Amino acid sequence: MVTPILVAAPSPALAAPAEGTIVLSASEQPETERPTLDRLKRSAARRDITLEEAVDGYLTEQAEEAASAMADRPDGPVDTPDVMIDDLPAAELEDLTSLAEDEGIGFAEAIERHGWQSDFTAAAEELEASFPAEFSGAVRAEDGSRAWFGFKDEVPEQAVKLAERLPVEVELVGGRGFSEAELAAAQNRTHDAVYRHPDVTDAITAYEIETGEIVVEAELDEQATTQAAQDAAIAEITPPRTLSGRFPVDMRIVGDATAEPEDRYIRGGGLLQTCTAGFNLRHTRTGTKRIATAGHCGRSKAKRNYDNHSRDGGSTTVTRVWWHKGTWGDIAYYSRGGKTATRTFYHDWNSKRYVDRRGGRPPKGTKVCKFGMASGKSCATVRYRRANGSTVRNMVITDTAGSAPGDSGGPWYYGGTAYGVHFGKIKTQGDTAMRASFTPIRQFEHRNYRVWKR
């Protein structure tokens, strides 16, 4: 039985005053002009073919004609050409095709909804880096219709300028009274208080960035079976206000609050026996190359066999160098064995592309894709950008259950942006199914490693 209880009433500081909100209506925002795409739409209609076919044909033609499409390939050829259709790289167009299939919409509609995402994530990352004490979060609507940015006090002028470049309605909310960093710190204190309680066997915490509410799901030991026992446990376990501060906490007792790693028959960038390789890493000072995967994969095996996809062939034995499962998430890296490291990754079976950007922690609503040996390629939407499990922290949780044992360690990405390595699944509030989750790729920077990009 699930028993919700609101621990603390929302503080007035959490509600933004009207004078602190700026709304840029969609009609006032710039329209994205894509003349080449428009021409391909007309051509597809005239030739009675799909837009996907027209786009594929154009990309193939451009790749054959443009020397630049083949020139910058320091690690050899890949399947995704370095060509664009207007503002959209071929890599993003491939992912938009997958999103259209996953969402049951047309390719053109997928481009219209999500083609501006890279501009949104770039704006969110710039604002978080420029105003760490003021930035209170960013959210992109799942249907791509709007964007939202929050700030502790006043809305910075830089935020307005960045928002004015987006082709959708944008709401900038000032006066929220807290930064996302403060909310994350309160989440960690709350998680520790709940998980240390002797009656709790497992716990998951996350936060709703738009409301500032900390969500806690706790699993009790078998002795607390009656409703009265659960009510008593909630009262005792509830974190005091001194821990959560002014943030409300939604505390729930659940029958299963597990964070379950997937560590069998895994595959991502390359096959690592029971786990998937994520991205190749490069040490920021020494230049040493390592191959990334999930922490629970590193813990379970000191040595693994690495295999390329069937079309490429080749294998080697890699040795575990380091693994971690805790504050920094669920990450590990192995040696490169007898192979030469590359800046490419498998984004689908036998299909490679280059990493061109190191993504930050993606905002809520961001579209991301993953590849794993068990479930293949699929795309999802970021639901929580920072969540804690019983044994792992700083995880990103998506809205999909579309992963399976064998996907652990695989790459999460969008276009040429590397976002993270697959963990497994985490169940959050109100879910009947567990949701696919990953560790942000920048967590490797705690060990002075970064994704090796072109």
What secondary-structure arrangement, pairings included, does this model have?
Elements: E1 3-6, E2 21-24, H1 35-47, H2 51-65, H3 68-71, E3 84-85, E4 88-89, H4 90-103, H5 107-114, H6 117-130, E5 135-140, E6 146-151, H7 157-163, E7 169-173, H8 180-195, E8 200-208, E9 213-220, H9 227-237, H10 241-244, E10 249-253, E11 259-261, E12 271-272, E13 275-276, E14 280-283, E15 289-293, H11 295-300, E16 303-307, E17 315-326, E18 329-334, E19 344-348, E20 351-354, E21 357-358, E22 367-372, E23 376-388, E24 395-398, E25 411-414, E26 417-426, E27 435-440, E28 449-451
Parallel strand pairs: 6-7, 9-10, 21-26
Antiparallel strand pairs: 1-10, 2-7, 3-4, 5-6, 8-9, 8-23, 11-26, 12-13, 14-15, 14-28, 15-18, 16-17, 17-18, 19-20, 22-23, 22-25, 23-24, 24-27, 25-26, 26-27
Helix pairs in contact: 1-2, 4-5
Structural write-up:
This is Serine protease. It comes from Nocardiopsis gilva YIM 90087. InterPro entries: Peptidase_S1_PA, Peptidase_S1_PA_chymotrypsin, TRYPSIN_SER. This protein is of the alpha+beta class and 454 residues long. Among the domains are: 3-12 and 180-257, GMP Synthetase, Chain A, domain 3, CATH 3.30.300; 261-451, Trypsin-like serine proteases (Thrombin, subunit H), CATH 2.40.10. The chain has eleven helices and 28 strands. The protein has helices at residues 35-47, 51-65, 68-71, 90-103, 107-114, 117-130, 157-163, 180-195, 227-237, 241-244, 295-300; strands at 3-6, 21-24, 84-85, 88-89, 135-140, 146-151, 169-173, 200-208, 213-220, 249-253, 259-261, 271-272, 275-276, 280-283, 289-293, 303-307, 315-326, 329-334, 344-348, 351-354, 357-358, 367-372, 376-388, 395-398, 411-414, 417-426, 435-440, 449-451. α7 links the parallel β6 and β7. α1 (35-47) packs across α2 (51-65) and α4 packs across α5 (107-114).
